[in-house]
Amino acid sequence: MANVGSSLNMEEGLGVTTLSVIYASVIISSMFLPPVLIKKFGCKWTITFSMCCYITFSLGNFYASWFTLIPTAIILGLGAAPLWSAESTYLTTSGNIYAKKTGKLGKDVINQYFGIFYLIFQSSGVWGNLISSLVFQQDPPKGEITKEHLLLCGANDCMTTSTATNSTKRPGNDLIYTLLGIYTGSGILAVLLIAVFLDQIPNDSEENEEEKNIPVWSRFLATFQHLKDKRQCLLIPLTMYSGFEQGFISSDYTKSYVTCALGIHNVGFVMICFSGATSLCSLIFGKLSQYTGRKVLYAIGSTIHLSCMIFLLLWKPHPSQKIVFFFLAAFWGMGDAVFQTQNNTIYGVLFVKNKEAAFANYRLWESLGFVIAFGYSTFLCVYIKLYIVISVLILSVVFYGTVEVLEHIKPPETSVSEEKESRVEEMDTQTKM
Fold first, then answer.
1. What is the model's pTM?
2. Spatial distance between the Cα atoms of 190 and 143, rounded to a whole number of angstroms
3. What is the C-alpha separation between 382 and 426, in angstroms, rounded?
4. Which residues contact 107 (CB under 8 A, 6 or more apart)?
5. Percent of the chain with pLDDT over 90
6. Among the listed residues 258, 242, 263, the one whose alpha carbon sits nearest the alpha carbon of residue 118
7. Contact 349/114 with Cβ under 8 angstroms?
């Protein structure tokens, strides 16, 4: 829905405003809810309840207006932070448990787990976009796009493509209802599958006596207290960049390039290439990281995205260059796979003892990137947006490099002592069991 939302609901910027509200709500949610809900209900039931919030947004789209989309966007955002924090915590904990049982390095197993997870997660973009394209293909736009209109597409788009043309004409309500019915049904099925079949991880819902005595307000503040860690502060630009780049590809690229030059019925097909590339590369990079390390993968992802953005600044999109739209989306997906898998992994590896608070920070700062990206989407020209994303990428690389330097010069005794403490805790848990 995010991929076609900015094109379906162009009036007064309702589409991008809704997306901005979602991530603003995620920020509020990230500050308070994840540590409390995960400790109270465990990862499994936090995931289950949070997914229900997504279904309400699908229902709100059946009658798209300010009075339906904004409230359901807030509900979705409140559920998003606990959902993603619980999923990341579940994967990290499961990876560490498996690593201890098999004698493997925890970070290598976690890398593989996140690679597999994002392979499956990003493949949803393939199926979701395929569904939207097949549905909208039943009512394709008629007539050719004028040369005057094409001059206003791409980097030159300064909100002029929001006026109705053959390429941006909204599909009929019957097709939109069909699409939303499929999405809503898929969401309900997903909730049932999680509730019935997902296992509780062993230490998912159990706490020791010290943890039980921690006051609720302290858990509320856990997200902010985690900012005392210098590494967390340095990772903020990198985390926000994830929101900036995803916001650009799902909102500005789809509207100002694909919809403007090819028509809304092609958005899904183009974004299938993005999701397919992200999905496949997530699995590849997850396995490759144990041989290359995360630094090499971050270098590859940054180079790919920088090259794509420079090309988008110079390119004049035209329907005759249809293949270019697909290749650009695929290359962007390759870079996105790096940031999705490695950002989650670096949080899981660096902040083992504070996973819930760390991943809550991850969603908070990534969501802030989304909010800013969608917030300025309605009044800035596309070329200015590209310059902003490029600047954030460069800043992210510099700050991430500082984190790697700090990790490199950290005394080895620290990591050894942490490993010993982890093993002692494991032995204590086994004794209690």
1. 0.74
2. 40
3. 52
4. 345, 348, 349
5. 34
6. 242
7. no
